[in-house]
Design brief:
The chain has 322 residues and is of the alpha/beta class. It has eleven helices and ten strands.
């Protein structure tokens, strides 16, 4: 496949000595071999560097970049900045992919003359046990606006950077937010999808997403939950400024559902005095949702939004008792 265009495959890593070998083995064995494999080491302090150096000595496609520990966003941004391929895809260092991961993504994209190609993932624990079965859709081809609406709806398409192949130009002027410790992908992917004219997807589960009990996204501390709030509001602000999309009600409900989940996590795990500025910022942001009617968002969300905006102390007491 050396006559095929170069794909830049970006792997950010941090203290990944337990998983990186399996990840890299799956990457170097890709049937699509015209790859530029970009490792970005985010200040690892364990044996991560020994593993990728061993692989690099045997595979000249591997390029390594190091940075002080600054988070996965900066690592991904570094990878995108240094990428020279016509296309870009991502793999996380604690995950692994099937040998036809890149070839299937490429085949989907060029066959349909699309801007973004998507494959599905198998959601597993570290022992390979399936822990989540995502609903399957038979819809394969989408115009850009339809794909963006589905991404914002967050069911058929999710905001993971992995499991997708992008035209490299789509990422050159988009940065993952380096001020967020987590959920940086949630507040970034919609900016990329907004550029797409056509998106194609397959139900083939070629990406193995390994969920860890100690990951930030699965342990929503009040601080982590607040990062999610910031990401959600980035999505909302974008959505308000873009051309009206289909599924307006579903998108709004999804955003409100996530905001209330974040708020509940913060209120139940802090004292009244803790995170007061953050709680007030969340309350003030609810003002933007007062314009939606019961018909738009349903009775439950209609009442909850108003209850916290006008009577935050009462809402806090009610939430704490549940």
């Amino acid at each position: 496949m050396n006559n095929y265009p170069l794909i830049s495959l970006i792997i950010p890593c941090y203290n990944a000595e337990q998983t990186l070998e399996k990840c890299l083995n799956s990457v170097i064995q890709q049937s699509y071999n015209n790859l530029e494999i970009i490792m970005v080491d985010d200040g690892s302090t364990d044996g991560t560097s020994k593993i990728y150096k061993d692989f690099q000595s045997k595979d000249e496609r591997i390029k390594v970049f190091k940075q002080d520990n600054s988070g996965v966003s900066k690592a991904r941004n570094k990878g995108v900045k240094t990428a020279t391929g016509k296309y870009i895809c991502f793999v996380d260092s604690d995950d692994w992919v099937e040998t036809n991961y890149c070839s299937e993504l490429y085949h989907l994209l060029v066959t349909e003359n699309a801007d973004i190609a998507i494959i599905e993932a198998s959601y597993e624990d570290k022992n390979g046990n399936i822990i989540f079965n995502k609903p399957i859709s038979d819809e394969k081809i989408f115009d850009g606006k339809r794909a963006l609406a589905l991404l914002l709806e967050d069911k058929v398409m999710q905001s993971h950077p992995w499991g997708k192949l992008y035209k490299a130009d789509f990422l050159k002027n988009v940065s993952f937010p380096e001020n967020l410790k987590c959920f940086e992908d949630y507040s970034t992917l919609f900016k990329i999808f907004d550029k797409a004219v056509k998106v194609v997807r397959s139900n083939d589960q070629l990406y193995h997403y390994i969920q860890h009990d100690d990951s930030l996204s699965h342990n929503l501390s009040p601080e982590t939950a607040y990062y999610f709030y910031l990401a959600i509001m980035e999505v909302f602000k974008f959505w308000q400024s873009t051309t009206p999309l289909k599924n307006q009600g579903k998108i709004t409900k999804n955003i409100i559902k996530k905001l209330l989940m974040v708020l509940k996590r913060i209120l139940r795990n802090t004292t009244k005095e803790e995170m007061q500025p953050e709680k007030e910022k969340i309350r003030q942001s609810f003002k933007s949702f007062l314009k939606y009617s019961i018909k738009d968002i349903g009775v439950e969300y209609f009442l909850y939004i108003r209850l916290y905006y006008y009577y935050p102390n009462l809402y806090t007491k009610l939430i704490s008792k549940k």
